């Protein structure tokens, strides 16, 4: 074999090895963390995900928001979640051993949301039971629906809703579209909706408080990264984002 041919082979081999090296380095830097979170956490966790990405170059945080019960069902069916944040402890407990060391990170209370200007003149919780009042609530298996049921029981007010939705965002959609005179969501949802709705506080709201836990999911390939994300949520930075949005500390 000529010296020239050996030189060509050596150069080609070096190029292949260099490309392979570049490919593996890029793969090592690219990580994805998948966070499943209750719909009421949409704004805050979107902000926290962006902050986490800034602090962890090469990491992409993918968020999925929805009713806590729906998210639990997806995780049980094998959805690739690394972190789960629930709007109540009941749905976290449904995961059993799939939830690794849940920690409480926030709490929330209910508030009445009405279309802008409150055309039905809702002023108290009992008004939601008035004949002809179109009220939308969350389904009872969803944390905001469970909280609503508890509130009815503790106040003696029996609401006859025109629909039961699978998340607080669905309730708000019915209210903002004018399909309902009022909806029961969280204080934080009313704040996040801004001028699109009118919020109505009611005296009994502190009788039911939902506690929000967060956990890594057993078997995740990104356990270390998941724990770091949870640490950020529990940190002063994360807690400030949550309290600024109207959440209270657990």
TrEMBL record:
The keyword Nucleotidyltransferase does not apply. Keywords: Metal-binding, Signal. The keyword Signal applies. Residues 1-27 form the signal peptide. Pfam families: SBP_bac_11 (PF13531). PANTHER family: MOLYBDATE-BINDING PERIPLASMIC PROTEIN, SULFATE-BINDING PROTEIN. This is Molybdate-binding protein. It comes from Nocardioides luteus. The gene is modA.
């Amino acid at each position: 074999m000529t010296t020239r041919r050996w030189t060509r082979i050596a150069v080609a081999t070096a190029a292949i090895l260099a490309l392979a090296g570049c490919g593996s380095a890029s793969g090592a830097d690219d990580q994805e963390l998948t966070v499943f979170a209750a719909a009421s956490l949409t704004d805050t966790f979107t902000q926290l995900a962006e902050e986490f990405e800034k602090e962890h170059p090469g990491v992409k945080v993918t968020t999925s928001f929805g009713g806590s019960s729906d998210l639990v069902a997806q995780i049980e069916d094998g959805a690739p979640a690394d972190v789960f944040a629930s709007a109540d402890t009941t749905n976290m407990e449904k995961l059993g051993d799939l939830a690794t060391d849940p920690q409480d990170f926030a709490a929330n209370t209910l508030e009445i949301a009405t279309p802008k200007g409150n055309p039905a003149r809702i002023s108290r919780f009992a008004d939601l039971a008035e004949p002809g009042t179109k009220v939308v609530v969350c389904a009872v298996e969803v944390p905001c629906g469970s909280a609503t049921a508890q509130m009815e029981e503790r106040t003696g007010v029996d609401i006859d809703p025109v629909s039961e939705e699978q998340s607080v965002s669905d309730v708000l959609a019915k209210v903002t579209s004018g399909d309902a005179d009022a909806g029961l969501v969280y204080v934080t949802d009313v704040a996040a909706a801004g001028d699109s709705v009118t919020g109505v506080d009611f005296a009994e709201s502190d009788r039911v408080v939902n506690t929000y836990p967060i956990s890594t999911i057993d078997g995740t390939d990104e356990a270390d990264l998941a724990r770091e994300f949870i640490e950020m949520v529990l940190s002063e930075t994360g807690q400030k984002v949550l309290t600024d949005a109207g959440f209270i500390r657990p």
